[in-house]
Structure prediction request, 168 residues.
Amino acid sequence: MEEVNLQEMLAARERRCYLQAQLLQQYKKSLISFTLNIPGPIKVLPGVPEAFALGCSRIEALLKERLVLIQHMETIKEKTGYEAFYNVDANPDFVKELMVSLEDQDRIGRLFDIDVLRPDACKVSREDLGFSPRTCLLCGQPAHVCSRSRSHSVAELTAEISQILNKL
Prediction:
C-alpha cells in the first residue's frame, strides 16, 4: 500500500479536471466521473480494486437497464486512486438521479463518489434534484460538515471503510 503526498493528489485532481474537459469537448454529452471516497494518504486499500470494479459494473448495468448509451468509457488506476469516466447520451439530471440511487443503495455505495457533468462542464448536484446531501459514514451528519471540521480522524474513517471493503 503506497502513500500519496499532497502534490501527487493535486496533480491527480488537475489531470482529472483536464480529462473531464477533454471528454466533454470531444463527445459533447453528459459525463459520469466515478471515484471512491477514500480519505487519507493511502488511496488503494485492500478491497479498493474490487469495490471499484463493482462500482463500474453497477454503473454499466444500470445504464444498460435504463437504455442509456455509453459513447465512451475509460479508466485510470493509479496510487492516487481509481477513476472511471463515461460519456453517455442522456439528460444529465436523469443520469444523476440514476447515480444517486447507486450511491445510496447500500454500504459499499456509500464509498462511491459519482459526479455527473453537463456538456457545459457544470456539475449536477444531489441538492439541485431535491436529494439530501451525502451523510458522514460515522455519525450521519452531512458529510461536508464533518469533512470541513475534521470531526473524525483519518484512522477512524479508514477503519470504517476497511470494514465495508472487507464485506465484499
Observations:
- The mean pLDDT is 96.
- The chain has five helices and five strands.
- The longest strand covers residues 69-78.
- Residues 6-27 form the longest helix (22 residues).
